[in-house]
Amino acid sequence: MQFDPVQGPVVWARGRVSVRQCPNSYVTAESTALLEEFYAWKLFGAMDYYKLPARLVEAIFLLENELKMEQRDAEQ
């Protein structure tokens, strides 16, 4: 990661993700709700995806993929 005088310094980074603004600004009520839905999905198992909103299904699959990559990185 390099300092970019136009965009400013990187203030938070983890793995392949970095941001130049405080990541707290990205946490919304909706993102918190999606995380809670994901944890419920992990706890109780699969749901009928055809009955869920597309945004929720996308969030579940995205978070599951990120979790697998975190676990894979931890093993190395």
Q: If you had to describe this structure to a student in words, what would you say it looks like?
A:
It is a single chain. Helix 1 packs across helix 2. This protein is extended. The protein has a two-stranded antiparallel ribbon with strand order 1-2. The chain is mainly alpha-helical and 76 residues long. The longest helix has 22 residues. It has a domain of 49 residues. Helices cover 50% and strands 8% of the residues.
Brief descriptors of the model:
2 helices, mainly alpha, 76 residues
Strand content: 5-15%
Q: What is the helix/strand order?
A: EEHH
How does the helix and strand content classify structurally? Answer: mainly alpha
Q: Please give the radius of gyration in angstroms.
A: 16 Å
Mean pLDDT: 86
Characterize the quaternary organization of these chains: single chain
Q: Give me the count of strands.
A: 2
Distance between the termini: 22 Å
Alpha plus pi helix count: 2
Q: Spans with pLDDT under 50 lasting ≥5 residues?
A: none
Helical amount:
40-55%
Major sheet description: 2 strands, antiparallel
How would the global form be characterised?
extended
Strand order of the largest sheet: 1-2
Map the helices and strands.
Layout: E1 12-14, E2 17-19, H1 29-44, H2 54-75
Antiparallel strand pairs: 1-2
Kindly summarize this structure in a few lines.
The chain has 76 residues and is mainly α.
